Amino acid sequence: MPPAARAKLRAGVSRANITPSIGIDLVGFAGRGPSVGLGDELHATALLLDDGRERVAILHLDLIGLDAEWSRAVCEFIGKRARLPARNIVLCCTHTHYGPSVRGFEGDPRESPEAAYMAELRFKLAGIVAEARTKLTPVTARIGRSTSDIGINRRERLPDGRIILGRNPTGPIDREVILARLDRPSGEPLACLLNFATHPVSQSGAARLISADFPGYAREVVEHLTGTTCLYLQGACGNINSVIMQEGLDSPRTLGKRLGAAAVQAYETAEPVPLAPLAVAHAEAKLPAKTYASVAEAEAAVQALQAEHDRAKEAGGNKGRLWWAQHRLDRAKTALESLQTGKPLPPVLAPVWGVALGELGLVTGPGEIFCEIGMAAKEAGIFPHTMYLSNTNGSIGYVPVPEAYPEGGYEVESASRVGPGAAAVLTDASRSVLRRARKTRGKLTPRQGPSSRPG
Hints:
By secondary structure, this protein is an alpha+beta fold. The protein is built from eleven helices and 24 strands. A five-stranded mixed β-sheet has the order 6-5-4-1-8, with helices on one face. The protein has a five-stranded mixed β-sheet with strand order 16-14-13-9-18. A four-stranded mixed β-sheet has the order 19-20-21-23, with helices on one face.
């Protein structure tokens, strides 16, 4: 009997409250200022999977995204404390735009609330993975699907040809809700993975309450109606916004209920599948960096961004707006220098994970990936079932499809570090890691040493 047929799966789940203190800087919309209250709590949840040969930890975090270097460091930190390889840890952010700034990890925790938050966060993440390890129990698995209409393509074309962040009801979109449920042999629910692709921006750009947005409310619906613990894994949502964007908590509640209901439908109609054996594959895709067509174009961009930076500095009092202006200016200056010297820009490194969970494949992208890229990975047919996880194990900004570049718009002009060829490189890397993970599953040797002991 082949290893894939013999593999038995165990799982453990644990959760921590990662809500920051009120007054911490928010991230997701430049210029808002710090948080002024609590809308709802933020959480991190860890699901640890073990097939007797390999262990994989999947975490969802109610955060916008994580720096790649910080992600690597925290995975090493978690791995040492939870006795599993750092390379087998998947950190997936829900991408809420109403959570704390995660850029302060290099600051002094004694002086900066953002640095203090990030310093504590790594201990909480290590703690829930370690706790999940103590709870490992045999499980069976099912996978179900449904659809949801809470997202809409946001690249709206105006009569003058400009692309704005609006509503494009005919634009590409992935409406699939895919859910993998894990139950104890008795049928008692343990955990589920919920994968869907839409930006959590339902409270508009002015809201200053800390909130997990609609993913948090969707989890609540699933957990209340099924008794399971739900992890929300954000899909390729780079060009997809929520259909409601109004300040206040009614928006995420409504959208969360709608998505949660679709997830429960998938949960209740799920069919049995093997989610073992496990395997993990990695790649570091080298995405071409974004540049300008000429020195003159780059000089004009630098001049315009310098003026924007100066205005933000003169206005004072808003670190987020000033950081964003400086960030874009620095990128433009680097591109200008490259054109002036003839020295090519270095590629943008994009870590990509491929995870085989039996007949389910997970593939990750480190940023805000356009939905067409996620759909291409899912539709490749490498696994019977595939989830695409964006904002995972790093954050490099937007990866648009090549057709978007001549159209322009925020994602291309302001928020992307990569050029038109990046989508193809990332798609190839996604398919490659999925194929390697599929090929490797069931071929690993049993663990040796302390980590091979039960629990």
